Amino acid sequence: MMMKFLKTIRNSIWVIPVIYCLMALALALIVVYIDMNILPLLNFELAFFLATSVDLAKEILGSISGALLTMTTITFSTIMVVLTTYSSQFSPRVLTNFVNDRRTMRVLGVFMGGFLYSILSLAFMQQATFEGEVISAIVAVMLAVLCLFFFAYFIHFVASSIQVSNLINSLVEDVKDEIEKEEKRIDQDHVAVSGLKPEVVESYDATTALQSEDFGFIQFMNHDRLFEWAEENGAVIHVEQLVGEFVTTSTILITIHHDEGTEIPDSLIRNIELGKERSVYQDVDYGLQKIVDVAIRALSPGINDPNTAVQCIHYLSEALIKNFKYTGTYVIYNDEKHLGRLVVRRSSVEDKLYKMLSQISFYGRQDVTILRTLIEALENIALNSTDDVKRDIEAFSRYVYDGFDEDVLYDIDYKYINERQVRLSEALNRAE
């Protein structure tokens, strides 16, 4: 539950702006305290540009607060325009990549914080309260200059974000980061990968199936806690579902093989957390699916941008090469006696190829460029894969070619496609 709460806070839009507003409130209180209690006690005069009279400070603070409110409104409107562009041109599922980007929220937070400081300082500014000059205005001026720099940076960031190449690269980097985390989990000494579901070696008196307490997408599995409980109690846990799958209240999440007297705590099932939408965290397939969504949208008649789909296919092949380092369909956590205590399912190579490339193949079945790029992508994957992966690639390549509409091909199309097929065959037959 704590992990889910922290993830919710991390992904919330309001967190960073609220932090910046609290910092602005603290700054306003500190500056007002300095103006009231420290400046009157100084034995020297500040430079003319550091302190102003109360009347001038009010004018400056009023002007800056109005300007910063306008900039905040413009920033918010720009964010809404970018979100509309992401949703209509790319995919609704990539909205979170822009919204959750800390740079977006920091810019909005700086403007909101600057406005809050100015308006609070103006509210505290009373002629009878302050003696002599104050520094509240010059602090507001420095914040306004800082906001200008952030605004210029924000314009650059937005212009960069709506470029499809940068978006695809960002999506791939998220996937590769998650793949590296998965590899680190698998590379642990007590963790192994297998293509076959391991048999339960020990004999147990009872088997308990725990069903989901709610419905939604599986967002997170705490493998370490499940493994610790199974090891401490001499049990074997089989996780029946994949991260990212949708489950209902009747879906079996885990199956536990245990002795008759073993007490299974209610909290055990809560190590598998559900949510209303999928997350890239622990879900490599969802990260890949976002790239697929961008490719499919590019192939739609309304967009008709096959070159973007081609770029997505190339990036997908790079991510799949990295993801196919481990090809087993089960991750096994072993105890000190090398007995499997936790068994977790993984997607197979065949499943990943079908899920990630079949839709692109279908919607691009009349575009020879898409067919040629898919064959090229399969060739690149084959050149960096084991024989087990190559067998799945060979089967999927036949699926791609058989599903293509050959009525749109001309002689020159056959020439280039045949060249690609020959290179794919050579890659598949090349020894590891």
Automatic annotation (TrEMBL):
Transmembrane segments: 12-34, 60-86, 107-128, 134-155
Organism domain of life: Bacteria
Keyword field: Membrane, Transmembrane, Transmembrane helix
InterPro entries, alphabetized: DUF2254_membrane
Record's keyword annotation contains Oxidoreductase: no
Keyword Magnesium: no
Name of this protein: DUF2254 domain-containing protein
Species this chain originates from: Salinicoccus roseus
